[in-house]
């Protein structure tokens, strides 16, 4: 029993003993603190001042980074190329959007205290049953986890139990998100149809239009990314993580020696979906809208490109890839918006050909080369030879 307790403690605390994890957390939280300081302390006419617009943009990038970490967990360590994680991201976003819509109350265009404006416009007479409870923050936050988690559990149970793998599983995940996109486009679903949910006003009693609320959401996004990273590192560093890698590299052999592969796949897949839901929930109040376009298969494919660029099976590489690609998208679409998809495709091809292990792999190779060329390592090799 004592051995089990000690193992549990080491599983929970292991990420805090890893140098790479501590470095990542230090850089992330330090950057969040620096941006916060420059936004609050520097005068607006100062060159060092970070505007609220930039803070909101960075907060959106951090949400994307958390989504990329979630995808890397299943793709990098479990070997499941999910082309449907945009669906989990969108479900978390819709759960948050429903809460934000209920907070508007009678301040909407039509002044109805019970129904959102789009329902009044469509002549709905009462609130659908599945909107019940979303006027309470705690219920909405639970649904942010449960909505994508339950979908991932049902989908994963059926897929993994049937031993669907490889490209077939990827196609099914893409079909899932496409089907959800078509469903959410329909007005009778009760989620705003093509326009989605928008015109949010408050979150937890704070006015979303204020600079303080924007900064708070940015900080919350940074903390969520840090916690998500720690959770993923804890999973990867545990026995479960080692079995996940075994499933990725030799699923049949892992199954042969007695492991319930489908259970491992299901657990990791559900955790990944929940992290994606949290990312979507933090994304929505910062951008001010959630609509069916977030279910687009193209968006899920973009996330895969982020992870491929940063480097699979590293977690921090997924963060790097998400930040670089989305910053490039912001700049590129401002200059040549119609050419962005071509640039993204070209980037993916270049990374696949010249950086198969991504930016993180490039850093790792440079580190190994530097270590091999150092006098200390050279001396050690000579002594060993002698």
UniProtKB/TrEMBL annotation:
Keywords: Cell membrane, Membrane, Transmembrane, Transmembrane helix. It is found in: Cell inner membrane. GO terms for molecular function: branched-chain amino acid transmembrane transporter activity. GO terms for cellular component: plasma membrane. It is a multi-pass membrane protein. The chain crosses the membrane at residues 20-40, 61-91, 136-160, 167-185, 215-236, 264-284, 304-328, 340-364. This is Amino acid/amide ABC transporter membrane protein 2 (HAAT family). It comes from Marinobacterium mangrovicola.
């Amino acid at each position: 029993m004592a051995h089990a307790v000690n193992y549990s403690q080491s599983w929970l605390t292991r990420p805090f003993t890893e140098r790479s994890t501590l470095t990542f957390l230090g850089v992330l939280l330090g950057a969040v603190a620096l941006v916060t300081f420059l936004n609050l302390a520097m005068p607006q006419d100062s060159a060092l001042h970070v505007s609220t617009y930039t803070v909101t943009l960075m907060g959106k990038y951090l949400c994307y980074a958390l989504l990329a970490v979630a995808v890397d967990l299943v793709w990098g360590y479990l070997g499941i190329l999910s082309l449907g994680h945009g669906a989990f991201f969108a479900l978390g976003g819709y759960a948050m959007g429903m809460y934000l819509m209920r907070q508007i109350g009678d301040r909407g265009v039509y002044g109805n205290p019970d129904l959102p404006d789009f329902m009044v416009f469509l002549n709905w007479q009462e609130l659908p049953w599945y909107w019940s409870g979303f006027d309470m923050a705690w219920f909405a936050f639970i649904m942010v986890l449960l909505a994508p988690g339950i979908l991932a559990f049902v989908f994963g149970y059926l897929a993994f139990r049937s031993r669907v793998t490889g490209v077939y599983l990827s196609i099914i995940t893409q079909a899932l998100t496409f089907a959800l996109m078509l469903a959410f486009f329909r007005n009778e679903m009760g989620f705003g149809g093509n326009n989605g949910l928008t015109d949010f006003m408050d979150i937890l009693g704070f006015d979303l239009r204020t600079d303080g609320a924007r900064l708070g959401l940015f900080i919350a996004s940074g903390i969520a990314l840090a916690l998500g990273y720690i959770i993923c590192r804890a999973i990867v560093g545990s026995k479960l993580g080692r079995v996940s890698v075994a499933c990725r590299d030799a699923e049949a052999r892992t199954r042969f020696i007695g492991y319930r592969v489908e259970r491992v796949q299901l657990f990791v897949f559900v955790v990944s979906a929940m992290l994606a839901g949290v990312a979507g929930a933090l994304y929505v109040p910062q951008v001010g809208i959630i609509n069916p376009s977030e279910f687009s298969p193209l968006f899920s494919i973009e996330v895969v490109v982020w992870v491929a660029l940063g480097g699979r099976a590293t977690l921090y590489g997924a963060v790097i890839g998400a930040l670089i690609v989305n910053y490039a998208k912001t700049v590129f679409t401002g200059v040549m918006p119609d050419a962005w998809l071509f640039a993204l495709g070209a980037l993916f091809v270049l990374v696949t050909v010249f950086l198969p292990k991504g930016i993180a792999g490039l850093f790792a190779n440079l580190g190994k080369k530097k270590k091999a060329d150092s006098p200390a390592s050279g001396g050690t090799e000579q002594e060993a030879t002698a």
